[in-house]
UniProtKB/TrEMBL annotation:
Identification of the protein by name: CASTOR/POLLUX/SYM8 ion channel conserved domain-containing protein
Organism: Glycomyces luteolus
Gene3D superfamilies attached to this UniProt entry: NAD(P)-binding Rossmann-like Domain
UniProt entry tagged with the keyword Lipoprotein: no
Membrane-spanning residues: 25-47, 81-105
Keyword vocabulary terms for this entry: Ion channel, Ion transport, Membrane, Transmembrane, Transmembrane helix, Transport
């Protein structure tokens, strides 16, 4: 091949220069302007040198910049022709400049719309991915950051930046002191993740993807965050949809990651809630930032003293456990154990400012304390209407809670249910398992089941249809159960799952005992863990059948009903039973939103009166 010609080289150099964009175009227009000014001045000096070359240079420049200058020229002949040509050249240059600037500005606005600039923030919260969970997470972070002057949330998702911002403004009216920054990019690409500056963030939350295999996306994002060269020093939280992917996700995230099994967690909560009405309200209160939350504080004044003293040392906070200096979380520890230097108390409080050590002596009324033992577990009958990915775990968890001789009946037309029941049936240790393949919205079927004969009824959302359709079918089932209960003048203890939190309000007319919204509770848990990583241990123990859990037990097992009492006395009665009291539930208010009769972390000094049917909320081993 022959050597490139001078023309080819010049053309190549010019093309490279022009490819540099708006700056190069403005540079070329500047060069052309100066060249045209010099040429016009030269010709004007030749035909009319009265002003000298300096004067003609200025006159030529003015004619290029302002076409109207030519109307004031008094020269004629050749000088007028030169100035006319110069003015025409100036018009071409200025119009080109306007076009270049407009194009450059449009390109810059388009770049801003794409959201590809670096987020220059520190101690901010990073959210990777986009789903309906993002609005719950942002709302909770806004509540958590309310006391801060300026908090920042940086979101990276494979969506248009402006669309994300518009949707956030629509769904969340008041961001208070929190500023939300959106960036467009792949949440599993290290280079894109670098845009939200995770190296200087305080936490990273990875949302569950809407893809067919969300766990694969989660693992990719975890690897991109922890191994992508972004210098991550903060903790990362996320949730897997299937428990079999949990080891891989934790391996990808490393020590900095706190990964939870969403289906397993919700199945545990569903089982606990179906056996104890009101428990979901307690957990929601603990998980969101709107009411009481869990805090960990170091209290040097109590070092070396028994934990029974810590139990009564806070009037407006409730002691629930200890975080040891080794990092081990102990819920409902023995009250005789002592608090060691370096240990932290785990407390429930409305805010960290409400945690105040009370030096006064608690008033305990011994005359109202009773010592009534709990009734032993009896065989139970449970009816499960519907089937989804967490049904197997629900059955496994029920098998750990119920007494021998218990029976669970499952009714569903889900295509995966028959084979799953066939496999899980032989693994049940203490409960019998029956299955009927049928439509749970069929009134005739529901009547044939005799729901009033069951101790617990669980209505699940099917995952083989769209979430809204699944909620619609669940609502139909619940309405049938309500009507049947009214006609028979009886009451069924029903716990239902809702796929969409917006349908919870609609479901309240069915008068079910509790409604579990899986995505909402998982979002709340991830947000709490992002703010305080030690809470993953706390909630892990509370949701587990091993160790201490939250129970709602009859109030008359602790204090005499119908007698004024303060919560110091209730807490002392629970302590003598090896339990930790954290609140109570008034049965008469069980149907009234938003608290449904639940009073968590009450002021221990105020008196109230408990009636038969009311419950004490305690941490206990059984």
């Amino acid at each position: 091949m022959s050597e490139p010609t001078f023309k080819q080289r010049a053309r190549y150099w010019f093309d490279n220069t022009m490819s540099k964009g708006t700056k190069a175009l403005i540079g070329w227009l500047t060069v052309i302007t100066l060249a045209l000014t010099a040429i016009g001045a030269l010709f004007l000096a030749i035909v009319n040198d009265a002003d000298g070359f300096g004067g003609t240079l200025w006159k030529s420049f003015i004619h290029i910049l302002d076409a109207g200058t030519i109307t004031g020229d008094d020269a004629g002949g050749p000088a007028m022709v030169v100035m006319f040509i110069t003015t025409i050249g100036g018009l071409v240059i200025l119009s080109s400049l306007v076009g270049v600037l407009t194009t450059g500005l449009d390109a810059k606005l388009e770049d801003l719309r794409k959201g590809r600039s670096l987020v220059v923030e520190k101690d901010h919260t990073v959210i990777l991915g986009w789903s309906d969970q993002v609005f719950i997470v942002i709302s909770e972070l806004v509540e958590a950051n309310e006391s801060e002057k300026r908090a920042v949330i940086a979101i990276l998702a494979d969506r248009d930046k402006v669309e994300m911002e518009d949707e956030i403004r629509t769904k969340i009216a008041d961001l208070k002191s929190t500023h939300v920054v959106c960036r467009t990019g792949d949440p599993a690409d290290p280079d894109s993740i670098g845009l939200v500056n995770p190296g200087q963030a305080k936490s990273v939350i990875i949302l569950t993807s809407a893809e067919d295999d969300p766990d694969a996306q989660l693992v990719r994002s975890l690897l991109a965050v922890t191994q992508g060269g972004n210098g991550i020093k903060c903790h990362v939280v996320g949730a897997v949809a299937e428990g079999r992917n949990l080891p891989a996700a934790r391996l990808a995230g490393g020590r900095a990651a706190h990964i939870v099994d969403a289906n397993d967690l919700m199945a545990r909560l569903m089982v606990q809630t179906c056996r104890q009405s009101g428990l979901s309200v307690v957990y929601t209160d603990l998980l969101d930032f709107g009411g009481d939350e869990i805090y960990m504080v170091e209290e040097p004044g109590l070092f070396g003293r028994p934990l029974s003293q810590a139990l009564h040392s806070y009037r407006t906070s409730s002691f629930i456990g200890v975080l040891t200096k080794e990092g081990r979380c102990i819920i409902n520890p023995p009250s005789s154990a002592s608090l060691q230097p370096g240990d932290k108390l785990i407390l429930i409080a409305a805010d960290d400012s409400a945690i105040v050590l009370d030096g006064s002596r608690p008033v305990i009324d011994e005359s109202v304390i009773v010592a009534r033992a709990d009734a032993g577990n009896r065989p139970e009958r449970t009816l499960i209407l519907g089937w989804n990915a967490m049904s197997r775990t629900i059955l496994e968890q029920l098998d750990q809670y119920v007494a021998p001789g218990s029976v669970t009946d499952v009714v569903s037309d889900h295509p995966d249910a028959p084979e799953a029941i066939r496999k899980i049936g032989p693994t049940m240790r203490v409960q019998g398992l029956n299955f009927k393949e049928d439509d749970t919205t069929d009134r005739v079927l529901l009547e044939s089941l005799n729901p009033g004969s069951y101790n617990h009824i669980i209505a699940l959302c099917s995952d083989d249809v769209a979430p809204q359709l699944a909620d619609s079918k669940t609502l139909v089932t619940l309405l049938h159960l309500r009507d049947m209960a009214q006609r028979s003048n009886s009451r069924f203890k029903v716990v239902s799952e809702m796929a969409d939190d917006r349908n919870r309000t609609l479901a309240q007319v069915t008068q079910a005992d509790d409604f579990i919204v899986s995505d909402k509770l998982i979002s709340l848990l991830l947000t709490q863990t992002a703010e305080n990583p030690h809470l993953s241990q706390v909630f892990g123990q509370l949701f587990s059948p091993d160790g201490s859990e939250i129970y709602l037990k009859p109030a008359d097992h602790y204090v005499r009903p119908g007698v004024p009492v303060n919560f110091y006395t209730v807490a002392e009665s629970a302590r003598r039973r090896g339990e930790t009291a954290i609140g109570y539930r008034v049965a008469a208010l069980a149907k009234q939103a938003p608290d449904y009769g639940v009073h968590l972390n009450p002021d221990k000094g105020l008196q109230f009166m408990l009636q038969p049917g009311d419950k004490i909320i305690v941490l206990a081993e059984d």
